[in-house]
Specification:
Elements: E1 2-13, E2 20-31, E3 35-39, H1 46-54, E4 61-66, E5 69-70, E6 81-84, H2 96-106, H3 111-124, H4 140-152, E7 158-162, H5 170-187, E8 190-195, H6 198-204, E9 207-212, E10 215-220, H7 222-227, H8 232-237, E11 242-250, E12 256-260, E13 264-268, E14 278-284, E15 290-293, E16 301-311, E17 315-323, E18 326-333, E19 347-351
Parallel strand pairs: 3-8, 3-9, 6-7, 7-8
Antiparallel strand pairs: 1-2, 1-4, 4-5, 9-10, 11-12, 11-14, 12-13, 15-19, 16-17, 16-19, 17-18
Helix pairs in contact: 2-3, 2-4, 3-4
Bound molecules: adenosine-5'-diphosphate and magnesium ion.
The site of magnesium ion (MG) has 2 residues, from helix 1.
Length: 358
């Protein structure tokens, strides 16, 4: 069931020479009980879209719907939507419990009930013993959880989260990713999450909208976005990709032949319908490529030499020089016993599986 719909929403700031199109005819449906992420580089319009959904900003054109009803004129406090910002914005002079009950009491909920609800929420974020402290007595991660408890307390239909983890250090951020996912699953509330961090988006989301220049470039489940990026921007922004020039010709048997560096030809059993032939750019994930020692390579391999080796513990990334100013990154998993170590300058064969080529 659709909770939030954006229908051809545009937002233009300023005019004349200062005109900025922050959102350009964005349409998206966000479902009930979904962890939905808007992902894209800085300035692509993520915050603007979130602020429009929250009611902090008005669309220049288009509509935002909540469960099918137009929201355009409803002020933020009348929407069953709450927001968690990057800065936790807790009241420093109120206790943790009071920070949570404040909004509830403003809504006319009596104190005893509000206190009860606050304690439930503190339980939910696993800070039950901290109700009587003030925010300055808590760590950054704990303050973030209080901000979440406060935002979840009125049981909104939708929780908007604008880069809520970006102020935390890496370890804490990873912990909070798990925590946020758990809170979303346990409460069943629709989360609309904004991040510029593709790993975070892949790890947490049911679906991701990848944005660029005020437009949504692709919407899909993490696997779909990673495995079947619709264009070069998405393939480049999400994860690592190699881009190589190639030449594609249709063969008589309905298959296609792709020529890569060194006149290396790969038979592609199927290509996307409408795929243009001739000069193309292919993308391929580094972990889909394999390496073999030169003496084990045959004509199915791209030959090259190891330009650099970066050891990451769980995996190793090799940069392979194919000649003609072309290099590819190859990522091999360590600890499988299957892969040899290759040193700088060594000649190697790169295995390019046909089904990994986009
Ligand atoms: P993101 O959150 O993806 O980094 P924003 O939604 O904040 O991007 O901004 C999108 C574009 O709109 C940017 O070019 C930004 O400078 C511009 N913008 C955002 N808010 C305003 C504003 N209040 N006035 C003028 N320009 C704005
Ligand atoms: Mg932003």
């Amino acid at each position: 069931e659709v909770v939030i719909s954006a229908r051809s929403v545009s937002k233009i700031f300023g005019s004349g020479a200062d005109k900025v199109t922050a959102l350009d005819a964005v349409s998206v449906d966000i479902f009930q009980n979904e962890f939905f992420t808007m992902l894209g580089p800085s300035g692509c319009g993520k915050t603007t879209l979130l602020r429009l959904i929250g009611g902090f900003e008005e669309a220049s054109s288009g509509k935002i719907l909540l469960e099918g009803n137009e929201l355009n004129d409803l002020p933020p406090y009348k929407r069953p939507i709450n927001t968690v910002f990057q800065s936790y914005a807790l009241f420093p002079h109120l206790t943790v419990r009071q920070n949570i009950t404040f909004g509830l009491e403003m809504q006319g909920i009596d104190r005893a009930k509000a206190n009860h609800r606050a304690d439930e929420m503190l339980e939910l974020v696993r800070l039950a013993q901290y109700g009587d402290r003030v925010p300055s007595q808590l760590s950054g991660g704990q303050q973030q959880r209080i901000a979440l408890a406060r935002a979840l307390a009125p049981a909104p239909k939708v929780l908007l989260l604008d880069e809520p983890l970006s102020a935390l250090d890496l370890k804490l951020r990873k912990e909070m990713q798990v925590e946020l996912k758990r809170l979303q699953t346990e409460t069943g509330i629709t989360f609309v999450f904004v991040t510029h961090d593709q790993e975070e988006a892949l790890a947490m989301s049911d679906r991701i909208a990848v944005m660029q220049f005020g437009k949504i470039q692709q919407i899909g489940a993490p696997r779909e976005i990673y495995d079947e990026p619709t264009d070069r921007f998405v393939a480049d922004f999400i994860g690592d990709s190699n881009f190589l020039p190639g030449n594609l010709v249709a063969a008589a048997n309905g298959k296609h032949a792709l020529t890569l560096a060194n006149q290396h030809v790969i038979e592609l059993p199927s290509v996307r319908s409408g795929q243009k032939t001739g000069d193309v750019t292919i993308s391929i994930r580094p972990e889909r490529l394999g390496l073999v020692a030169e003496n084990l390579a045959d004509q199915t391999h791209l030959m090259g030499s190891v330009k650099s080796v970066i050891y990451f513990g769980t995996d190793t990334t090799y940069e392979i020089d194919l000649g003609n100013d072309q290099t590819v990154k190859v990522r091999t998993q360590n600890g499988t016993g299957a892969m040899d170590d290759f040193g700088r300058g060594e000649r190697v064969g790169v295995h390019v599986p046909a089904d990994a080529i986009r």
